[in-house]
Amino acid sequence: MSLSLDRVEIESVGSDPVRLAGALLDQLPVLDGAVPIHEIALALDILDIREAPLSGLEACLQTDHHKSYGQVVLNAASSPRRQRFSIAHELGHFLNERHGPTHEGAFACSRDDMSAPFGDPRHRRQEQEANSFAIELLAPLSRLGPYLRPVAELDHALAISDRFDISREAAVRRYVELHRDCLAAVFTRHGQVRYIEKGEGFPRVNFWVGDDLGPALRLPAPDAEGLTELDEADPHIWLTSPGRHDLFVQTLH
User: Which of 81, 126, 141, 154 has a Cα at 20 to 30 A from 172?
Assistant: First the structure.
């Protein structure tokens, strides 16, 4: 697909990442499926997208002082879906007039930067805004209605992942953010919390980064896809102030 995009018109909407993504989407033809992120980047003065063995990083954007052109380097070990998000994330840095390099003249972004960024306030703000731009571009709210209308279950989030060709992790974060039900997602590795994504109004969770979930993960056996049934859980295990909440838990292994 060959695209012709007007970068000046896109950047004229200002630095708000959602508005930037919206202005870009307005210039695309009607889409049925995944957003062509490689073609978009190349049509907006990204001269080259290549892979390399990046230690501790997911992607790097190299550009000049005025951001008149750029080059994106992706972690060769990452999945194609994660690489798609990385391209969109770096494009968010590139198009946002308020974003400046924080690593010796380049934007160098880790996996944490693309999920739960930390560090000094400027770095956190830039990474959060690049993430907001990326997910709005790759999974636009205007196309998510069919997935958000049913009662919340993880298989709807997995369908977003497949439809828009984004990672399951990114799709679940988007689902938690937008669904009308009060949701949270706890991302773990080897039974320990990596980070927690909470939707608006979700109460405080008992667990912190690095905590072992232990008995909280004693759930029904998963199906062949690694997904458990939605099952009622004890809010006293999960919530700091359980109150009168009814809590249901579903796990993807």
Answer: 126
- pLDDT per residue over 38-82, tens digit each? 999 999 999 999 999 998 899 999 998 889 999 999 999 999 999
- The rounded distance, in Å, linking the Cα atoms of 114 and 126 is 11
In angstroms, the Cα distances linking 136 to 125, 131, 155 are: 16, 8, 20
Q: Which residue blocks in 143-183 are alpha helix, DSSP H?
A: 145-148, 154-164, 168-178
What does the alpha-carbon distance between residue 159 and residue 149 come to, in Å, rounded to a whole number? Answer: 13
User: Whole-angstrom Cα distance, residue 132 to residue 18?
Assistant: 7
Provide CATH 1.10.10.2910 ranges for the chain.
Answer: 7-138
Is 209:194 a contact under the CB 8 Å cutoff?
yes
The H-or-E segment that residue 128 falls in is helix 121-138
Structure-token pair, residue 225: 């896809």
Q: Which fold has domain 7-138?
A: Arc Repressor Mutant, subunit A (1.10.10)
Q: Is the separation of the CB atoms in 58 and 109 below 8 Å?
A: yes
Predicted TM-score (pTM) of this structure: 0.90
